[in-house]
Specification:
Elements (H helix, E strand, L loop, with lengths): L13 H31 L3 H17 L2 E6 L11 E4 L6 H8 L4 E5 L9 H7 L3 E2 L5 H14 L5 E5 L16 H9 L3 E7 L1 H4 L10 E7 L11 H19 L2
Parallel strand pairs: 1-7, 2-5, 2-6, 3-4, 3-5
Antiparallel strand pairs: 6-7
C-alpha cells in the first residue's frame, strides 16, 4: 500500500509547490479537455471517439498527479456486451480510475448539480450521463436505453451503490437501485473494487498524493428477478469486499 504523502511530510517546503502546480495544471487540463469533450459531443456524442476522449482525460489528470492505475479481471468481460458495474466509492479519483481501467465504454449516474454547470452539464447530458435523482429506475433505464440505441456498440453503466464516499477499506451498505436498473436494461451486474484511492485523495482533500490505484473486476452476476433486490445488492457488496481483501497487502 502506498503511504499517503501527507504522512511523509510532503506538504512542507518545495514539495508544497508540486501540489499547487499539479492542481493548477490539472485545472487547466480539465478546462481544455472539457472543451474538447464538448466539441466531440456535438459531432459524435455516442461514438468511440467520445469514450476515447473521456479515457484520455482520465489518463491525463491521473498522470499529472503522479497516479498509475493497475487493473485485473477484464477477462471476465465480453467486449460485445454491456453491464452495470457496481463499485465502492472512496474518492473523486474513482471515476478517473475506472475510465482508465474498464475496457468497455460506459456512462454513469452523475450528481444533478453537475447538469446545472454551463457547458459541463450540456456536455455530459449529450454524452449520455444520467442525473442521479432522475426518479424511478424505469426512467433511468429509459434514458440509458435511448443512449445505447444511438451508439454503435453497447454502453455499460457505472453505479457507486453506497450513495456516498466512504473511508479507505470500508464498504457501506449497497442501495438496491442498481439491481432494478440491471433488470430493466437486461444486462448482468459486475462487482468492481477500487483500492487505495481513498488514501491518495480522501474526502475533503483538494490535492492528490502520487501512488497507485488498484481496480479489480469481478465475475458478472445475474440480476435474477426471482431473488429479492436487497439480497442481490448484499451479494454484490460481499463480492466487492472480497475483491478489496484480495488486493490488500
Amino acid at each position: 500500500m502506498i503511504t499517503p504523502a501527507a504522512q511523509l511530510g510532503y506538504y512542507h517546503g518545495a514539495e508544497r509547490l508540486r501540489y499547487v502546480g499539479s492542481w493548477a495544471i490539472g485545472a487547466l487540463a480539465t478546462i481544455v479537455l472539457g472543451a474538447l469533450g464538448a466539441v466531440v459531443s456535438v459531432a459524435a456524442a455516442h461514438s468511440s471517439a467520445a469514450q476515447a476522449c473521456a479515457r484520455f482525460r482520465g489518463r491525463t489528470l491521473l498522470w499529472i498527479n503522479g497516479i498509475v492505475v493497475e487493473s485485473e479481471g477484464s477477462e471476465h468481460l465480453d467486449a460485445d456486451a454491456a453491464y452495470v458495474f457496481v463499485a465502492n466509492h472512496q474518492s473523486t479519483l474513482d471515476t478517473l480510475a475506472l475510465l482508465v481501467a474498464l475496457p468497455l465504454p460506459f456512462r454513469s449516474l452523475a450528481k444533478t448539480s453537475l447538469f446545472r454547470i454551463p457547458l459541463v452539464g450540456w456536455t455530459i447530458r449529450r454524452l449520455g450521463y444520467v442525473p442521479d435523482d432522475l426518479g424511478a429506475n424505469d426512467s433511468i433505464a429509459k434514458v440509458l436505453s435511448t443512449s445505447r440505441q444511438r451508439s454503435a456498440r453497447p454502453i455499460s453503466t457505472v453505479v457507486f451503490a453506497e450513495g456516498a464516499r466512504t473511508a479507505e477499506g470500508e464498504v457501506a451498505r449497497f442501495r438496491s437501485g442498481f439491481v432494478y436498473l440491471a433488470r430493466a436494461v437486461g444486462v448482468p451486474i459486475v462487482p468492481v473494487a477500487l483500492v487505495n484511492s481513498g488514501h491518495l485523495m480522501p474526502s475533503g482533500r483538494r490535492f492528490a498524493d502520487p501512488g497507485s490505484i488498484q481496480v479489480r473486476i469481478g465475475a458478472p452476476m445475474h440480476a435474477d428477478p426471482e431473488v429479492a433486490a436487497s439480497d442481490i445488492a448484499a451479494t454484490a457488496r460481499a463480492a466487492v469486499t472480497e475483491l478489496m481483501k484480495a488486493t490488500a497487502p
